[in-house]
Amino acid sequence: MSQAFDAGDMLRIAMPKGRIFEEAVELFRQAGYPLPAEFDDSRKLIVEAPQANMVFILAKPADVPTYVEYGTADVGVVGKDVLLEEERDVYELLDLNISHCHLAIAALPDWQPVMYPKVATKFPRLASQYFREKGQQVEIIKLNGSIELAPIVGLADRIVDIVSTGRTLRENGLVELEKMMDITSRLIANRVSYRMKNTQIEELIRRLERVVKGEGVR
Ligand SMILES: Nc1ncnc2c1ncn2[C@@H]1O[C@H](COP(=O)(O)OP(=O)(O)OP(=O)(O)O)[C@@H](O)[C@H]1O
Ligand SMILES: O=P(O)(O)OC[C@H]1O[C@H](OP(=O)(O)OP(=O)(O)O)[C@H](O)[C@@H]1O
Question: Residue limits of the ATP phosphoribosyltransferase catalytic domain (predicted)?
Answer without folding.
Answer: 60-209
